[in-house]
Amino acid sequence: MTAPLWLWLAFSAFLVGMLLLDLFVLHRDAHEVSLREATALSAIWIALALLFAGGMFLFAGPTEGTQFLTGYVIEKSLSIDNVFVFALILGTFAVPKADQARVLLWGIVGALVLRAVFIFVGGELLERYDWIVYLFAAILIFTGIRLASGKHEEIHPERNPAVRAMRRLVPMTAGYRDERLWVRRSSLADGEIPQRRALLGVWVGTPMLAVLAAVMTTDVVFALDSIPAIFAITSSTFIVFTANAFALMGLRALYFLLAGAIERFVYLNIGLAFTLIFVGAKFVYSDLAGKVPVLISLTVISGAVGLSIAASLWKTRAMTGDETSRPGKGSKE
């Protein structure tokens, strides 16, 4: 599916509109996001994605509609892993609960911009070089095997190269200033003024700027897995981008909904590993023997993730709220 320019502009306007609604209406004042609010927002984003899928079925056809749904399921499933990482980042930097929603929003918007670059570059590479298919397949299968074996690389947000570089280059205040990323030097007390010269002269960064960098750059690691996975389903950059956008824009609500119970998803890594290995094998099979019907891909992927979640919840059904991590505390036992 080659989307016309007006469709790209219309979808971009929709994203900007939703961002403005969030900034100036839903979260105009900093506050701790309740479970009820997170559930409502998550339901809204899922409903919007399903409405968009319905439009794809109606105006683009069943193939494109199913491709979008499959890509969205992949992204939504893989984004559950992001929930733990966000909890780890917010816990490591001790971000106040009232300020978590705003920094996550800006982090996700920045991550979406970075993913857009990956998507267009990846689409161009697939268009020009056939062997890229095997590189993407190898990345997915290797990641799936590591995920299934439990060999996860530990994530240390404070060691993130972008965060460390920012702290070297940008003078920062010792503590947070609500949800602000920058403050004027003149607003700081004498003992709070950093010794190094601010890059913007009168402006000084806050630790929230480092949190934002950690969220954005950590998501890039996840994009290296998820974006090739969707390209195994469709070659349409529009479908890949919109599936990523809906999953990412709903990720913040998903964080506040699931972060307190993320430890219950004990078998999720198996479902995600199977998904990555399946789409990696699909890449190779499609190149050598022919395309796998997208409806089969949707059924297999949603079934694998759904079963792993159901099995996890059944296995951990005896857990109480006190036995699971709270949002922002972030340590994985």
Walk me through what this model shows.
With 333 residues, the chain is mainly alpha-helical. It has one domain. It contains eleven helices and two strands, in the order ααααααββααααα. It has helices at residues 5-26, 35-60, 62-92, 97-128, 132-149, 161-169, 207-231, 237-249, 251-258, 268-288, 294-315, and strands spanning 182-184, 203-205. The protein has a two-stranded antiparallel sheet. It is found in: Membrane.
Task: Report a brief summary of the structure.
The chain is mainly alpha-helical and 333 residues long. Helix content is 68%, strand content 2%.
- The Cα radius of gyration reads 21 Å
What characteristic shape results from the CA principal axes? globular
Report the major sheet. Answer: 2 strands, antiparallel
Calculate the terminal CA-CA distance, rounded to whole Å.
Answer: 44 Å
Strand residue content: under 5%
Q: Structural class from helices and strands? A: mainly alpha
**Quick check: average pLDDT?**
82
**What is the count of distinct domains?**
1
Unreliable sequence segments: 321-333
What is the ordering of alpha helices and beta strands? HHHHHHEEHHHHH
| DSSP strand count | 2
* Order of adjacent strands in the largest pleated sheet: 1-2
Task: Determine the fraction of residues in helical runs and give it as a percent range.
Answer: 55-70%
User: What is the number of helical segments per DSSP (H or I, 4+ residues)?
Assistant: 11
Main location: membrane
Membrane topology: Multi-pass membrane protein
Subcellular location: Membrane
Transmembrane segments: 6-26, 38-59, 79-96, 103-125, 131-149, 198-224, 230-258, 265-286, 292-314
